[in-house]
Write a structure and sequence with these properties.
Layout: E1 11-17, H1 20-30, E2 34-39, E3 47-53, E4 57-72, E5 77-92, E6 95-99, E7 105-106, E8 113-128, H2 129-140, E9 147-149, H3 157-174, H4 182-199, E10 202-204, H5 217-228, H6 236-243, H7 247-257, H8 262-280, H9 288-294, H10 300-311, H11 315-320
Antiparallel strand pairs: 1-3, 2-4, 3-4, 4-8, 5-6, 5-7, 5-8, 9-10
Length: 321
């Protein structure tokens, strides 16, 4: 009986050249870009772009000897990037993050972002969005939901050392010339995903927001905005501005299509997040007060009564289960 060896799951892509326009087109397609512009520096221009991996994780490398700027996005993936030469900035949501050799960064995950770079040698690890969210949900014993990485918080030195060590181990498998089995690739992707989640500070949002059937595109967008930014001090005015409606127009649309007011839905979303944290919390380490205040409920008596009305039990009972 002949045993068939499983096919190597990796795919490979590589391109290089000396035409700046070709380079901008290549990277624009790879990163869902728009408005990419470039200019030469004192270096002779050349570029190289390489991708090796499977549907869950890929390793990429970029050489780009010029300046470039534009808008990019990675809606379907989570990406960690670091440079061995050169650097630049990434800007999203009014927050600018600089990167240079020795400072890995996670690409913004909430929509598109602006970037500037010059004369870089970059390495990147891309994870499929659903795959990484599934791994994160296993760790937190919760339902998969979007991940938001905190660019203002620097990873701990020991975590970065662990991340770098795992990337080196994974590169031997992903980038090696020897055949790789699907099982070996899956184990490597999982180990690398776990290392990323342990290294780069992040939080998990609630699963994709439920939207009433027949809701207009603006109401859908407003509900998604409420869920995505419930952890921030947003108001009905912020939501209205985001979707291009007046506050009164937004309130009327919600009453017609959802049957409640935007601020009432926001309170409900935040209370759901409190419940999720209390369910994962440990009595003695987590307190109802600190979780409630973190989600904007300052008056604990009123919060406790509203919580009991919504869930049929008091928050201290949820924490004690």
């Amino acid at each position: 009986m002949t045993m068939q060896t499983p096919a190597d799951p990796r795919t490979r892509f590589e391109t290089a050249g000396t035409d700046l326009g070709d380079a901008l087109d290549t990277f624009g397609r790879a990163y869902d870009g728009s408005g990419f512009v470039g200019s030469r520096t004192e270096r002779p221009f050349s570029y190289r772009f390489r991708v090796v991996g499977d549907q869950t994780m890929s390793f990429r490398s970029t050489l780009f000897d010029a300046r470039a700027a534009g808008e990019a996005g990675t809606d379907d993936e989570y990406v960690v990037m670091w440079t061995s030469q050169g650097g630049g900035t990434i800007t999203a949501g009014g927050e600018e993050v600089s990167y240079a050799p020795g400072t890995p960064v996670v690409f913004p995950t909430e929509g598109s972002f602006r970037f500037e770079l010059q004369d870089v040698r970059e390495s990147l690890v891309h994870f499929d969005r659903g795959y990484l969210e599934g791994i994160a949900a296993e760790l937190g014993q919760t339902t998969p939901g979007p991940l938001v990485f905190d660019h203002a918080q620097t990873p701990r030195a020991e975590d970065l050392r662990a991340w770098n060590a795992q990337v080196r181990r994974a590169a031997q498998t992903v980038l090696g010339s020897a055949p790789v089995s699907p099982i070996a690739m899956a184990e490597t992707a999982r180990d690398t995903a776990l290392a990323m989640l342990r290294t780069f500070p992040h939080r998990q949002l609630a699963p994709t927001a439920p939207v009433p059937e027949g809701a207009s595109s603006r109401v859908r967008e407003a509900i998604e905005f409420l869920h995505a930014f419930a952890h921030t001090p947003i108001t009905t005015t912020d939501v209205a501005e985001h979707v291009g409606l007046s506050v009164r127009g937004l309130q009327q649309a919600f009453q017609r299509q959802v049957g409640t007011a935007p601020n009432a839905m926001l309170r409900g979303v935040r209370m759901d997040r409190v419940r999720e944290e209390l369910q994962r919390g440990t009595p003695g380490e987590t307190t109802v007060a600190e979780v409630a205040v973190r989600w904007g409920f300052a008056h604990l008596g009123r919060f406790s009564a509203a919580y009991a009305k919504r869930f049929g039990e008091y928050p201290r009972e949820t924490l004690g289960h």
